[in-house]
Amino acid sequence: MRAPLRSSLGPRADGHHQVLFVFAECVPFAIALLVLVVEFSPAHVLYTGPMLVATPALAAVTMGPKGTLAAAGVAVAVSVATATHNHAWGSQQVYTNFLALFLVSVASFMTSRAARRRTENELNQVRRIATAAQDVLLRPVPDRLGSVRASSMYLAAEAGAQIGGDLYDVVQTRYGVRMIVGDVRGKGLPAVRAAAVVLGAFREAVHYEEDLVEVIRHCGAALRRDAVVTGMVGGDDAVLEGFVTALVAQIPDGPHIEVINRGHPPPLLLRDGTVRALMPAAPMPPLGLEEFISGPPGRTERYPFAPGDRLLLCTDGVIEARDPDDTFFDLTEAMAALRDHTREAFLEGLRQALLRHTQSRLSDDVAVLLVDRREDGGTRPAAGPA
């Protein structure tokens, strides 16, 4: 079962554009303040009526219907104050200014509301497309796969997004249950494309290649071919500008798990309330950086995985999540605290703990695979490397 999608409500990634946007929102109120200063100073002979009339129209560009009404209200209040201060009530100019301000305010409000509805409709359409794309790219993980049970969770960091550069999948094959978790360097559509390429290669190779090394080799080769086609690199000998950290695992019939780690955070094994990281004996570079490998593109390592054990595979969006004080999220502690929960409750508790730690401001996408070895799945080995 895949946990519900969530997106953070964090600040915009581009701080420069955010400052400009806030400045634009302040312009209508700054104009109203300027008019008030002018009218209450010796320079009140200047004609400031058109400046106040423009404030609702300016607010409609950046602030929406409520902001437009607020700007119109401020403009009316300033007009009443200045007309009273200058003893201008009864003059044709004052009533003309009020009529113009009313007409511009109504038009600005209607325009702003129509624009808001159009934007919301477009955003809803984009979300529907993203949801459909996610169902194809990150399809639901089967609940039962032989001797194991699995669940997944995905949280997108980008506001309004439902899909990013993280990837995962679990497949039942004749060689056992095989799974992948990966993280694409970069953001946006190029990251989604790279994730789709790696997942496509994995889903094809797992059914035909007996050796996990060959499976991971197919994923890396597919990534490089796509990079050449899309112009990211100049040829087969060029270095990829982007890469993908990936971890491929296989759960055979025996009470163990086989893992190939290509630069990815190690999986965490929960056994008897104790969490242990399955660290690789020989670290390998990510997919796309095969030029730094002198030997084969990976080496299979075996670890105990007995009935009753729980395995968590995740992307670095989990372990690198920080609170406002820049303290990293303690995944080991969170897993130990949730050790007695069902898989669904475990993932929900992990999601809540993660969002609580970051105050719902994730800096990177989060993908999690949770795998339980069923109690009837075999015998329990002694602790330690297999």
From TrEMBL:
<feature type="domain" description="PPM-type phosphatase">
    <location>
        <begin position="155"/>
        <end position="373"/>
    </location>
</feature>
<keyword id="KW-1133">Transmembrane helix</keyword>
<keyword id="KW-0472">Membrane</keyword>
<keyword id="KW-0812">Transmembrane</keyword>
<dbReference type="Pfam" id="PF07228">
    <property type="entry name" value="SpoIIE"/>
</dbReference>
<feature type="transmembrane region" description="Helical">
    <location>
        <begin position="69"/>
        <end position="88"/>
    </location>
</feature>
<feature type="transmembrane region" description="Helical">
    <location>
        <begin position="94"/>
        <end position="111"/>
    </location>
</feature>
<keyword id="KW-0378">Hydrolase</keyword>
<protein>
    <submittedName>
        <fullName>Serine/threonine-protein phosphatase</fullName>
    </submittedName>
</protein>
<dbReference type="InterPro" id="IPR036457">
    <property type="entry name" value="PPM-type-like_dom_sf"/>
</dbReference>
<dbReference type="InterPro" id="IPR001932">
    <property type="entry name" value="PPM-type_phosphatase-like_dom"/>
</dbReference>
<dbReference type="InterPro" id="IPR052016">
    <property type="entry name" value="Bact_Sigma-Reg"/>
</dbReference>
<feature type="transmembrane region" description="Helical">
    <location>
        <begin position="20"/>
        <end position="38"/>
    </location>
</feature>
